[in-house]
Design a protein that fits this description.
The chain contains 13 helices and 15 strands. It is α/β, with parallel strands linked by helices and 400 residues long. The mean pLDDT is 97. It binds pyridoxal-5'-phosphate. Belongs to the class-III pyridoxal-phosphate-dependent aminotransferase family. ArgD subfamily.
């Protein structure tokens, strides 16, 4: 039995079945490459779901995490520490200032913070309901789940305490109709990630900003997946110059360490009173040091420009492929989805893996690509060159 298969069997016996059994046990990584437990190498084009922004084993991340672990691993919120302060200052600065932060250990927790902040705002202003989008994803906790627009993952766990109204994503008119002076907050991804990297029509996020300004509803931008350079800007909202009132971040922020943030701007920065919210691990020194290393490296190595230029090379390369299973490519920067002409993404994902590329069948007809931001043009071309063969193999697998 291969080492992969042995570990998969033990995984199946030891873990709840919610994830199924993943196809590979990964053992180590270096840059954009990872190796499985049997020593097979892959080009990692999914980066642990848009998380490993500096790739694997990046010296800046290794150094920051090791040094902080040796100096001080944890304080809780009973004591403060410099890394968390530097991180909050840096994030606020990048997001345009005039705000305050709450640090978390995950994206879901960042959204829970945003939600509690919004609830306080709603109580203070006498507002009653929330708006979110169909197929949107905000997390799996009971609060974040109630805002998540995919019925198949939400409804088995209802009913929920919040009145949430779902609108079709990308339709500014529908949003305008749904948001009245009684609406507490709109939770919005600048591009829907889990739905399959689905960008809205241009101007949608700016329209949401206008609608919220007109009605007084809070605009909560969920940039847990889109933030920290993924689209070629620090934050996707910057493409439309429309800053939300509350911004949530996680995934790519820690480069693989668990850290998230909820930033609130202007009058909303001081919504919480002492005792209103908390987290034992949130803003932990090691996680904060990792996030600082990510931000510093993204800036120093100009990874925003790299995400733009290599993202274009990838998109142009894929767009030039003529294959009956490939409809096209969507997304921005190093955050893309290959759109298929049939619901065969699982077969494409496994054919890509057999060819040495890790990608993600995010939807039945869509393959998500969210590689480390350090991906080179040459590595992007390797994938583009292999793609016709991968699609051929996936078609054959489906016929048999
Ligand atoms: C991944 C994700 C979340 C949840 O983050 P976790 O770290 O898994 O808790 C929330 N919103 C969006 C847009 C995400 O992509």
């Amino acid at each position: 039995m291969s080492r992969n298969d042995e570990l998969r069997a033990r995984y199946q016996a030891a873990f709840m079945p919610n994830y199924g059994v993943p196809p590979l046990a990964l053992a180590r990584g270096e840059g954009v490459k990872v190796w499985d437990a049997d020593g097979n190498a892959y080009l990692d084009l999914i980066a642990g779901i848009a998380v490993s922004s500096l790739g694997h084993g990046h010296p800046a991340l290794v150094e920051a995490v090791s040094a902080q672990a040796a100096a001080l691993a944890h304080t809780s919120n009973l004591f403060l520490h410099e890394p968390e302060i530097r991180l909050a200052e840096r994030l606020l600065d990048l997001a345009g200032g005039d705000g305050k932060a709450f640090l978390t250990s995950s994206g879901t927790e960042a959204n829970e913070c945003a939600l509690k902040l919004a609830i306080k705002y709603g109580r203070r202003t006498g507002r009653s309901y929330f708006v979110a989008t169909r197929n949107g994803f905000h997390g799996r906790s009971m609060g974040a789940l109630s805002l998540t627009g995919k019925e198949s993952i939400r409804e088995p766990f209802g009913p929920f305490a919040l009145d949430v109204r779902f609108v079709p994503y990308g339709d500014a008119d529908a949003l305008e109709k749904a948001v009245t002076g009684d609406c507490v907050a709109v939770f919005l991804e600048p591009t829907q990630g889990e739905a399959g990297v689905v960008p809205p029509p241009e101007g949608y996020f700016a329209a949401a900003r206008r609608i919220c300004d007109a009605t007084g509803a809070l605009l909560v931008g969920d940039e847990i997946q889109s933030g920290i350079g993924r689209t070629g800007a620090w934050f996707a909202f910057q493409h439309e110059g429309a800053r939300p009132d509350v911004l949530t971040l996680a995934k790519g922020l820690g480069g693989g360490l668990p850290v998230g943030a909820c930033l609130a701007f202007g009058e909303h920065a001081d919504t919480f009173a002492k005792g209103d919210h908390g987290s034992t691990f949130g803003g932990n020194p090691i996680a904060a040091a990792a996030a600082l290393a990510v931000l510093t490296t993204v800036e120093k190595d100009d990874l925003l420009a790299n995400a733009q230029s290599v993202g274009e090379i990838l998109a142009n390369g894929v767009a030039a492929i003529d294959h009956p299973l490939l409809k096209g490519i969507r997304g921005r920067g190093l955050w893309r989805a290959l759109v298929l002409t049939a619901e065969r993404s699982a077969a494409v994902e496994s054919a890509a893996r057999a060819a040495g590329f890790l990608v993600n069948a995010v939807q039945p007809d869509a393959i998500r690509i969210a590689p480390p931001l350090i991906l080179t043009a040459g590595q992007a071309r390797l994938f583009v060159d292999a793609l016709p063969g991968v699609l051929d193999a996936a078609q054959k697998e489906n016929r048999s």
